[in-house]
């Protein structure tokens, strides 16, 4: 009933006053029967923010509530796949031609395929950690950090949180920069054609970063992941759009050239020095690793999935679908881009086609990139938003500013629940990422560092360690040794990728001018 649901939600707000608890428990006992009420005595002395657990609700509880007392999850295999594709196929797909150019026709596709296998395997391990204990009825872990705390605990929880949320903050900055580059490309392309090539059409990135920031401030007021399904689907469609255009243009250029460019070993010595080739190869590893890193938000996506069947089964299918789709697109876009440009493959595939016709098609691709990044920004930032808001509710459970929600009627959509703390905190977050993007417009290299640093702990180390504990795998068994070898190999890759990205930052610093970036 609506009354039952209202009281359950009051509990989930985390009120800790004894009188409030007593009144809520008494009311729940009337609504749900004496049997449920008799099991609630353990809540009286609980000193942390709590949710209604399976102990509070009868096994055949309300149709609108899940086994943890929260509203029924509605996510499906397809919405989960859309979330993953939105997170994985970012604008980074356009840099894969450059990455393959550094590694060559042999190592480039091989490394990409290897990363896809590692990402899928570790994602499968991570899906088994959504519930602690039994995969069907165990305690739910709502976030990546919850899973680490529940299964591993200790200082590793703080390390995980620091790496995860720092990475998400960096991604938000990188997406702001990438979107402004695409918007500037549209402006310059149209200006170039209107002036028939007479105007160099220099454009500042700052206004476009501000426009992107305003859009994100509005969209960031969507309360949680479960309500982002439509934005993820739109973003996934956009990612296919610009990837397909980039692929088509690459095929067209190969046909025009009449040959496949490139070599087995990558960019030739002479075009770059031996030292530059080494650093570029390391940086290419980081670019490919970062392109596949979505484990950081996998638990949060899994928490939107309905059950039965078990959430882990649905997520494993979603991960397999998403990895197959993204790897196919990565291979096609990266390889055709390299075949089209050879050693001169650009950092952004679409910019390699310059201002030549069909310029309107490149404009469409850049519009699709912007729309996709608008959605991907939200998909990546929601876990960080939720973490800070949960912390604030624990810290100030009786604060009117933090906990009060105002219902604002929205014609055709039902009431919108406005929370003042959410409005203020999320707005400040978006403004800060926008300002940093304007101050450090070469931040894509720094994001590469964050991505390389985050790849090993978040995509490999924690999933492997949690799986070992969850499945009680004996130390020094064959399975344990293989998992540890996988973890150490990925650590080495992450370290060399960090070294390559640092070299890129050093080069960018030589021409650094804050707030004065134009193209």
Low-confidence stretches: 11-61
The arrangement of helices and strands along the chain is HHHHHEEHHHHHHHHHEEHHH
Ends: how far apart?
A: 59 Å
SS class: mainly alpha
Q: How many E strands?
A: 4
Instruction: Please state roughly what percent of the residues sit in beta strands, choosing from under 5%, 5-15%, 15-25%, 25-35%, 35-45% or over 45%.
Output: under 5%
Can you count the helices? 17
Structure description:
- The protein is mainly alpha-helical.
- It is built from 17 helices and four strands.
- It has a two-stranded antiparallel sheet with strand order 1-2. The chain has a two-stranded antiparallel ribbon with strand order 3-4.
- Strand 1 (131-132) and strand 2 (139-140) form a beta hairpin.
- The chain starts with a helix and ends in a 10-residue tail after the last helix.
- Mean pLDDT is 76; it is low at 11-61.
Walk me through the topology.
Layout: H1 2-12, H2 18-32, H3 34-37, H4 77-88, H5 96-127, E1 131-132, E2 139-140, H6 144-151, H7 155-194, H8 206-219, H9 229-257, H10 274-291, H11 298-302, H12 311-341, H13 359-395, H14 400-403, E3 405-410, E4 414-419, H15 420-439, H16 443-470, H17 478-509
Antiparallel strand pairs: 1-2, 3-4
Helix pairs in contact: 1-2, 4-9, 4-12, 5-10, 5-12, 5-16, 6-7, 7-8, 7-13, 7-15, 7-16, 8-15, 9-12, 9-13, 10-16, 10-17, 16-17
Quick take:
This protein is mainly alpha-helical and 519 residues long. Helix content is 66%, strand content 3%.
């Amino acid at each position: 009933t609506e009354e039952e649901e209202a009281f359950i939600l009051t509990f989930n707000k985390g009120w800790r006053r004894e009188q409030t608890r007593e009144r809520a428990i008494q009311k729940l006992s009337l609504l749900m029967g004496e049997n449920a009420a008799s099991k609630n005595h353990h809540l009286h002395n609980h000193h942390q923010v709590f949710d209604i657990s399976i102990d509070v609700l009868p096994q055949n509880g309300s149709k609108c509530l899940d086994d943890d007392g929260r509203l029924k999850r509605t996510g499906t295999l397809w919405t989960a796949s859309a979330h993953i594709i939105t997170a994985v196929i970012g604008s980074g797909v356009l840099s894969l031609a450059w990455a393959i150019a550094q590694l060559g026709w042999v190592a480039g596709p091989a490394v990409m395929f290897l990363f896809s296998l590692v990402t899928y395997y570790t994602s499968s391990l991570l899906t088994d950690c959504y519930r602690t204990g039994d995969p069907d009825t165990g305690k739910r872990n709502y976030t990546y950090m919850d899973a680490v705390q529940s299964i591993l605990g200790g200082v590793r929880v703080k390390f995980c949180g620091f790496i995860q949320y720092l990475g998400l903050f960096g991604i938000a900055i990188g997406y702001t920069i990438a979107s402004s580059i695409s918007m500037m490309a549209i402006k310059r392309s149209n200006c170039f054609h209107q002036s028939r090539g007479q105007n160099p059409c220099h454009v500042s990135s700052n206004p476009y970063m501000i426009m992107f920031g305003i859009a994100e401030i509005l969209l960031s007021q969507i309360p949680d992941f479960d309500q982002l399904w439509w934005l993820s689907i739109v973003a996934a469609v956009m990612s296919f759009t610009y990837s397909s255009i980039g692929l088509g243009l690459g095929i067209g250029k190969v046909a025009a050239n009449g040959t496949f460019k490139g070599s087995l070993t990558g960019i030739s010595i002479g075009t770059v020095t031996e030292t530059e080739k080494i650093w570029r190869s390391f940086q290419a590893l980081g670019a490919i690793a970062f392109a596949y890193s979505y484990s950081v938000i996998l638990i949060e996506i899994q928490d939107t999935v309905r059950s039965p069947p078990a959430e882990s089964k649905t997520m494993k299918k979603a991960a397999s679908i998403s990895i197959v789709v993204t790897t196919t697109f990565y291979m096609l876009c990266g390889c055709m881009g390299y075949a089209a440009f050879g050693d001169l493959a650009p950092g952004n595939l679409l910019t390699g086609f310059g201002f030549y016709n069909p310029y309107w098609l490149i404009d469409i691709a850049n519009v699709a990139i912007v729309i996709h990044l608008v959605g991907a920004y939200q998909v990546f930032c929601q876990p960080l938003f939720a973490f800070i808001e949960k912390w604030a509710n624990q810290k100030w459970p009786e604060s009117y500013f933090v906990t009060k929600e105002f219902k604002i009627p929205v014609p055709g959509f039902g009431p919108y629940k406005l929370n003042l703390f959410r409005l203020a905190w999320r707005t400040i977050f978006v403004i800060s990422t926008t300002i940093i993007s304007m101050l450090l417009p070469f931040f894509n290299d720094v994001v590469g560092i964050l991505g390389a640093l985050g790849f090993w702990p978040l995509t490999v180390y924690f999933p492997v360690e949690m799986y070992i504990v969850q499945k009680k795998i004996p130390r020094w068994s064959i399975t344990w040794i293989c998992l540890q070898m996988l973890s150490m190999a990925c650590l080495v890759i992450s370290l060399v990728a960090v070294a390559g990205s640092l070299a890129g930052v050093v080069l960018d610093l030589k021409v650094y001018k804050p707030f004065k970036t134009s193209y």
